[in-house]
């Protein structure tokens, strides 16, 4: 029983890493209707800026705040001068543009800071807490707590605020939103800026658990996209629950399902996606899209 509980706890911790990136993807989609494959690269760029500032003896908290401010501006600039040219066109073209942006950001980060592994300091202590035979690091607890707070705030933003409703309106139908008097361009910039800021927070939480490299979040992005598909693009709560579910199930499958083991546990989220897309295509917590013809 102790092993089972430990696997669940470790899975929740790993799932929180996936959830951090997944929330940023949901935020961009809710604000613009697009899937941003460059989200991981934008987050890594923000983390590199925070890391560079810490090497100049800037306090960690201040360095992260500066990186968040940079991310807001960078996200707004990307939307205004790059993505706006493609947002009204074919969605597939916009997706390809975000993939190209990911490649560009990764290359720039490698050129500026090399591809060597760097150690990013942690916001939380590495000490462990023992409870009923289960060991949990304070860093994992802190990361999970931050993700829960962000999830609640994001859900409240889109459901209970005028800004959130305006962002959703622009994403669903920008033409009607413009006729209603909403500043569509500024709202799109705000959406991208907020998503980039959320990515910076996610990167700062994830980097201490990995090693800082330009491709640090490539694998996490795959799992985050799986969580988005499972949880539903319209539900911040759903993607967090889905990310936790993926983290827990892949841990349990690796230990208790002999033919999967640790080598094939990467297949677990894709099996889940296959099952969910057959049973509930909009995701576990997503809303059905009704189109009148």
From TrEMBL:
Q: How does it sit in the membrane?
A: Multi-pass membrane protein
Phylogenetic placement of the source organism: Bacteria, Bacillati, Actinomycetota, Actinomycetes, Geodermatophilales
Mark the transmembrane ranges. 6-27, 34-54, 60-82, 94-113, 144-167, 187-208, 220-247, 253-279
**Record's family?**
Belongs to the binding-protein-dependent transport system permease family. LivHM subfamily.
Entry superkingdom = Bacteria
Protein's recorded name: Branched-chain amino acid ABC transporter permease
User: Among the record's GO biological process terms, what is one?
Assistant: amino acid transport
Cellular location of this protein?
Cell membrane
Q: Which organism is it from?
A: Modestobacter versicolor
Presence of the UniProt keyword Transmembrane helix in the record: yes
Q: Known InterPro entries for this protein? A: ABC_transp_permease, BCAA_transport_permease
One GO CC term, this protein = plasma membrane
Q: Name one GO molecular function term.
A: transmembrane transporter activity
Give the principal location in a single coarse category: membrane
Query: What are the entry keywords?
Result: Amino-acid transport, Cell membrane, Membrane, Transmembrane, Transmembrane helix, Transport
């Amino acid at each position: 029983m102790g092993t089972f509980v430990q696997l669940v706890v470790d899975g929740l911790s790993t799932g929180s890493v996936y959830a951090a990136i997944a929330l940023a993807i949901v935020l961009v989609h809710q604000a613009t209707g697009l899937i941003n494959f460059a989200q991981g690269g934008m987050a890594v760029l923000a983390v590199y800026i925070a890391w560079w500032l810490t090497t100049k003896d800037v306090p960690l908290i201040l360095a992260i705040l500066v990186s968040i401010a940079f991310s807001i501006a960078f996200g707004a600039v990307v939307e205004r001068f790059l993505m706006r040219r493609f947002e009204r066109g074919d969605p597939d073209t916009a997706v390809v543009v975000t993939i190209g942006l990911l490649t560009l950001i990764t290359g720039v980060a490698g050129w500026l800071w090399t591809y060597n592994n760097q150690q990013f300091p942690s916001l939380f202590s590495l000490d462990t807490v023992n409870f009923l035979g289960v060991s949990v690091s304070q860093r994992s607890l802190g990361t999970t707590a931050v993700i829960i707070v962000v999830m609640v705030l994001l859900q409240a933003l889109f459901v209970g605020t005028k800004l959130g409703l305006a962002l959703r309106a622009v994403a669903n139908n920008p033409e009607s939103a413009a006729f209603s008097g909403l500043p569509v361009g500024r709202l799109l910039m705000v959406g991208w800026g907020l998503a980039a800021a959320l990515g910076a927070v996610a990167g700062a939480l994830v980097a201490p658990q990995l090693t800082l490299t330009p491709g640090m979040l490539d694998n996490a992005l795959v799992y985050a996209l799986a969580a988005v598909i499972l949880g539903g693009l319209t539900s911040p709560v759903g993607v967090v629950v889905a990310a936790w579910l993926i983290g827990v199930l892949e841990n349990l499958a690796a230990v208790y399902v002999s033919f999967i083991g640790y080598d094939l546990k990467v297949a677990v989220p894709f099996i889940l996606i296959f099952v969910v897309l057959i049973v509930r295509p909009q995701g576990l917590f997503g809303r059905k899209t009704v189109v009148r013809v």
